[in-house]
Design goal:
By secondary structure, the chain is of the alpha/beta class. It has one domain: Ribonuclease H-like superfamily/Ribonuclease H (Nucleotidyltransferase, domain 5). The protein is about 30% helix and about 20% strand. A 5-stranded mixed β-sheet has the order 3-2-1-4-5, sandwiched between helices.
Length: about 200
């Protein structure tokens, strides 16, 4: 090609954007400090998927880093913006609409969307995001999702599950996690026991 002065035509790289949404990236305010001195100081959130047969469910959760309690969750058939907004609204209602909470997520399009960011601002929350492609910046909630899958779904025949059973299993595990599963970080107490002891 050099001999005949030929050049390849290279397709330019395109920056991906979700359709019809503004992409808003927030700084990483946690910097991997997954501790909190009080409730509603730092929340972390993420989406994971649960696949069974030909069906996929998407689980969105919010965790309070004070005691690692799962404050809210939603299980939908999609991972679009309403999934994370509804999870956020549930968390706000459960905690009596606290202000100034740092809500940390990855840079996924649903979290960077105009609708989600507007909800953050309207409720006087503070948005924080992991650095791009760095799962360790949100390791606690990633670890929780991994535990849920391995402890609740690992030995299940996925092709035998139905929607109602998946939802029931998720709810059962979340209750177990908050009320029965001890954690070293909490002095070998459950999230519920830690809150009661600290009150």
């Amino acid at each position: 090609m050099q001999k005949h002065n030929l050049q390849c035509r290279i397709k330019p790289k395109r920056k991906w954007k979700s359709q019809g949404e503004s992409i808003i990236i927030a700084p990483d305010l946690l910097k991997r400090d997954f501790t909190a001195a009080r409730p509603n100081q730092k929340w972390v959130t993420d989406i994971t998927y649960i696949q069974y047969g030909s069906t996929t469910k998407y689980l969105s959760t919010i965790m309070d880093l004070y005691n690692n309690e799962i404050v809210a969750y939603k299980l939908y058939n999609h991972q679009q913006t309403p999934l994370v907004i509804d999870t956020l609204n549930e968390a706000l209602a459960a905690r009596n609409y606290p202000e100034g909470v740092i809500v940390h997520s990855d840079q996924g399009s649903v979290y960077a969307s105009y609708a989600y960011q507007t909800q953050i601002r309207n409720n006087r929350l503070v948005c924080s995001m992991s650095r791009r492609g760095n799962c360790w910046d949100n390791a606690v909630i990633e670890s929780f999702h991994s535990s849920l899958k391995s402890e609740e779904f690992q030995y299940v025949k996925f092709n035998s599950l139905r929607d109602a059973e998946v939802a029931e299993r998720v709810m059962t595990y979340l209750n177990y996690y908050n009320e029965e599963r001890i954690q070293e970080k909490l002095g070998y107490l459950t999230p519920f026991e830690f809150s009661v002891k600290a009150a």
